[in-house]
Write a structure and sequence with these properties.
about 425 residues; mainly alpha; Growth Hormone, Chain: A; two-stranded antiparallel ribbon
Length: about 425
C-alpha cells in the first residue's frame, strides 16, 4: 500500500535530489569571494589577513555555532532546522553583497551560522531516512554536491563580476538557496513515502529496547540490542581521533580553497578569471573521491581508505611546492582526495553511532572541533604568505595538516569495519 506521500514525492530519488540542492548552498557561498578577492580588497581597502577572514569566519562559525545548531535540531525537527538553515544562508548572502567592509563580514558570519545548521542536520537525515545499504551512496552524493556547489561558484563568480561587479557576483548565488528551499519543502511533503520502512511495514518487527551494535561471530553478523545508554562523544577516544582527522582535512581544504586563485596568479601568471576557473578543478574532482569512497567502503576497511586518501592528498601541497606548472595534475589528485576525505569520515560516524540522538551529538562534536581547527587554515595561509612574500610556508603548513589526517585518522578508525 502506498503512503500519504505517493506519486512523485514517493519516488526514491526525491530525498537525494533535495539533499543535492541543499548541499549546493553549504560550501559555494564560502568560496564565492575567492575569485574576486583582489577586486574586493581594492574597493574596500582590505589587508590580506582581513581578506582571509572571508573564508575563515564561516568555518569558525562551523565550530562555535555547532552547539547552537545541535540545540536547534533537538528543539525543532530536522525538516524545520534545514529550512531555517537555507533562510539564514539566503539572508547572509544578501547582506554580504552590500559594498561595505562591515556588511561583508557580518553577512559572512550569518552565512556561516546557516551553513552550520545544515552541516549538522544532513548526516542525521541521511542516517534516519536512508536504508543501511544506501547510506554510503547517499553520503557520497551529498559530499559530491558540496564540491559541485564550490565548483559552480568558482567558475561563475569572476565572469559575472567582470560584467556587473563583485557585489552582484556574490549576491547572485542566493538563487540557489531559494531553489533548494522549494525543493526541500516539496520533499518534506512526501517524507512518509521515502522513510525507511516502519516496524508496522516490516515482515517481522522487533521491539527496540536500546541501541543496536553489530558484532562478528564465526563469520556471521549477530544483531545485539544493548540496554545501556550510548557513551557521550567526548568520552570516546575515537571521537577525538575523528575530530583531529576532520580538522586536518578542513584546514587543508579551506586554506587551499581560499588562496589557490591567488597562488596560480602569482606562480604561473594566470589572469583572475583563469585562476578562478583553474581552481574549480580542485573542487569538481572531489566528486570522484566522494562517489568512489562508498564503492571502496563496500570492500575496504575505513582505515585503508583514509590511508589512500591521505597519500593522494599529499600530492597537492608537495606538487604546488616543487612543480607548480603541473598544477592540473596536483589539482586532480588533491581534489579527488579532499572529496574522499570528508566522505570517509562521515561514513565512519554513521557506522559507529547507535541512534539518531547519538548521530546528532557525534556529528556536532566531530564537525565542531574539526572546523575549529579548519577555520585557521585561510588565516594562517594568508598571514604566512603576507609575512614571507611567497607560498612555501603556507604549503608546508598544509602538508602537516594532511599528515595529521592520515596518521590520526587511520589510528582512530583501526577497529571500525
Amino acid at each position: 500500500m502506498r503512503g500519504a506521500g505517493s506519486g512523485l514525492r514517493g519516488a526514491a530519488w526525491v530525498l537525494p535530489a533535495a539533499i543535492v540542492l541543499v548541499a549546493l548552498n553549504l560550501r559555494g557561498p564560502i568560496v564565492a569571494p575567492a575569485p574576486v578577492i583582489g577586486d574586493i580588497r581594492v574597493d574596500l581597502g582590505l589587508t590580506a589577513t582581513i581578506a582571509g577572514l572571508l573564508t575563515t569566519i564561516p568555518v569558525l562559525c562551523f565550530a562555535l555555532a555547532t552547539p547552537f545548531a545541535s540545540w536547534v535540531i533537538a528543539k525543532a525537527d530536522p525538516e524545520r532546522a534545514l529550512s531555517l538553515s537555507l533562510v539564514i544562508v539566503l539572508a547572509g548572502t544578501v547582506v554580504r553583497s552590500m559594498p561595505s567592509a562591515a556588511a561583508l563580514l557580518v553577512g559572512t558570519a550569518v552565512i556561516g551560522i546557516g551553513i552550520t545548521i545544515g552541516n549538522v542536520v544532513i548526516p542525521v537525515v541521511i542516517r534516519r531516512d536512508t536504508s543501511a545499504e544506501r547510506v554510503g551512496l547517499v553520503t557520497g552524493v551529498y559530499t559530491s554536491a558540496l564540491n559541485v556547489g564550490s565548483m559552480i561558484t568558482s567558475l561563475g563568480t569572476a565572469p559575472i563580476a567582470a560584467a556587473w561587479g563583485w557585489p552582484v557576483a556574490i549576491a547572485v548565488w542566493a538563487v540557489l538557496a531559494v531553489v533548494a528551499g522549494f525543493a526541500w519543502t516539496y520533499a518534506v511533503g512526501g517524507r512518509a513515502a521515502w522513510l525507511r520502512p516502519s516496524p508496522t511495514e516490516a515482515e517481522e518487527p522487533l521491539p527496540v529496547t536500546g541501541p543496536i551494535d553489530q558484532v562478528m561471530d564465526t563469520g556471521a553478523i549477530r544483531t545485539v540490542r544493548a540496554a545501556s545508554t550510548p557513551v557521550r562523544p567526548a568520552r570516546r577516544l575515537i571521537t577525538w581521533g575523528l575530530t583531529l582527522a576532520f580538522g586536518g582535512q578542513a584546514f587543508s581544504y579551506y586554506a587551499l580553497t581560499a588562496w589557490i586563485p591567488t597562488l596560480l596568479h602569482d606562480e604561473i601568471g594566470f589572469s583572475k578569471a583563469s585562476s578562478g576557473a583553474s581552481s574549480s578543478v580542485f573542487q569538481i574532482l572531489a566528486v570522484v573521491g566522494a562517489l568512489g569512497v562508498p564503492v571502496l567502503a563496500a570492500k575496504w576497511r575505513p582505515r585503508a581508505i583514509i590511508s589512500l586518501v591521505a597519500f593522494l592528498w599529499l600530492a597537492m601541497p608537495l606538487g604546488l611546492l616543487f612543480a607548480p606548472q603541473l598544477w592540473l595534475l596536483w589539482s586532480v589528485l588533491g581534489g579527488a582526495a579532499q572529496g574522499g576525505g570528508i566522505t570517509v569520515i562521515f561514513i565512519v560516524i554513521v557506522r559507529i553511532v547507535s541512534s539518531d540522538a547519538d548521530a546528532r551529538r557525534m556529528s556536532a562534536f566531530v564537525q565542531g572541533g574539526g572546523y575549529l581547527i579548519g577555520s585557521a587554515g585561510p588565516l594562517v595561509a594568508g598571514s604566512l604568505h603576507g609575512a614571507t612574500g611567497d607560498w612555501t610556508a603556507p604549503l608546508l603548513v598544509v602538508l602537516v595538516a594532511v599528515l595529521t589526517l592520515g596518521i590520526v585518522g587511520t589510528t582512530a578508525a583501526r577497529r571500525v569495519s
